[in-house]
UniProtKB/TrEMBL annotation:
The keyword Repeat applies. Keywords: Kelch repeat, Repeat. It comes from Xanthoceras sorbifolium. This is F-box domain-containing protein. Residues 25-65 form the F-box domain.
Length: 359
């Protein structure tokens, strides 16, 4: 009798999986229709049925939307509030309201950590490492699945780290240098492969001291280290994963890297906040920095971080105050760049990092 019941349940499950996504339509046609639903309604789609929920939360869904140019990019911001706790917000730049929304339930153990890495890979946001006043550096990693709207534990780093460079190249996360439990940690870096869900430790004699910022350009990780207070010299290094080699960034390029950086169509832009707020552009052929324009002091609330979607650069400051600049059509009025703005939150949260996630 038990055997018959279990067989009946198995048959029921098989029939359930064969239920079409949309009654009367082949699944490929149904997917063609559903994938065109804007991302802001995906939470509603998941409520229709288990099959719809599993589809919307799958990698196949994301891959299909990207392949057919249906994907939408949202911005995720890691901040620190007035309680000195980490909080995370998300912005849909295509929304008519264009307002930042709080992502709830950040992992409790990570709330008061500092020096945490913040990165995006696939449809996941990662919160890596970090340390506290009474807590040593940790190897813990947390993952926020943007499709499921849920935080989860993820594979830990090979070694504990805080205040390290964190970037993605070729669908792999690189966690480079920083402070750890051992002095040798500044000579090492971890590489995360999503396909194996595992970190691999690499060690090199090169030392990457106190890291301030990083970006990826031409398949290489550029890292800016602390600027000398005596000489104002900017010290920067570059790592090339394909050859596993480290080099110093040439002095001309390093000299103008005095703020958060972003790449737009292969061109490097830097937000210089040393005197007001102005956007600088690195011209490779001329080997020189060119000012793009100043930003209005009425709109920006430094210190800011920057991120790019297409040809638009989003400058995010305190309280997630946001200024949007179209560098493909950047105009100036009285020396101030023409831009649009997104209302800030009713807070003075400090911005730590910004990343883009596409579904």
């Amino acid at each position: 009798m038990d055997h018959l019941e279990s067989g009946s349940e198995g048959t029921s499950r098989i029939k359930q999986t064969q239920v079409p996504l949309i009654c009367g339509l082949p699944d490929d046609i149904a997917l063609f229709c559903l994938a065109r639903v804007p991302r802001k309604y995906h939470m509603v789609l998941k409520c229709v049925s288990r099959r719809w929920r599993d589809l919307v939360c799958s990698e196949d869904w994301r891959a299909y939307r990207i392949k057919h140019n249906l994907d939408e990019t949202w911005i995720y911001a890691l901040c620190r509030d007035n309680k000195l706790e980490q909080v995370c917000y998300v912005l849909d730049p295509n929304s008519t309201t264009r307002s930042w929304k709080l992502i709830p339930e950040l992992p409790h153990r990570a709330l008061r950590r500092k020096g945490t890495g913040f990165e995006v890979l696939g449809k996941n946001v990662y919160l890596l490492g970090g340390c506290g006043w009474s807590e040593d550096a940790t190897s813990e990693v947390y993952c926020y699945d943007a499709s499921m709207n849920r935080w989860m534990d993820a594979a830990p780093l090979s070694t504990a780290r805080c205040y390290f460079a964190c970037q993605v190249i070729d669908e792999k996360i690189y966690a480079i240098g920083g402070l750890g439990l051992n002095s040798s940690d500044t000579h090492s870096w971890d590489v995360y492969d999503l396909s194996t869900n595992n970190w691999k430790l690499h060690i090199d004699s090169n030392n990457v001291p106190e890291i301030e910022d990083s970006f990826v350009m031409d398949g290489k990780v550029y890292i800016r280290c602390c600027t000398s207070t005596v000489t104002s010299h900017v010290y920067a290094v570059v790592y090339e994963p394909s050859s596993g080699t480290w080099q110093h960034v040439d002095s001309e390029m390093a000299s103008g890297w005095r703020g958060p950086a972003v790449i737009v169509d292969g061109t490097l832009y830097v937000l210089d906040q040393s005197s007001g707020t102005r956007l600088m552009m690195w011209e490779k052929e001329k080997r020189e920095w060119t000012p793009v324009g100043r930003l209005s002091t009425l709109l920006t609330r430094p210190p800011c971080r920057i991120v790019a979607i297409g040809k638009s650069i989003f400058v995010v400051g305190k309280g997630c105050s946001t200024v949007v600049i179209d560098v493909g059509n950047a105009g100036n009025i009285g020396g101030v760049m023409v831009s649009s703005s997104i209302p800030k939150l009713n807070s003075s949260d400090d911005i730590i990092s910004c990343k883009c996630l596409t579904i």
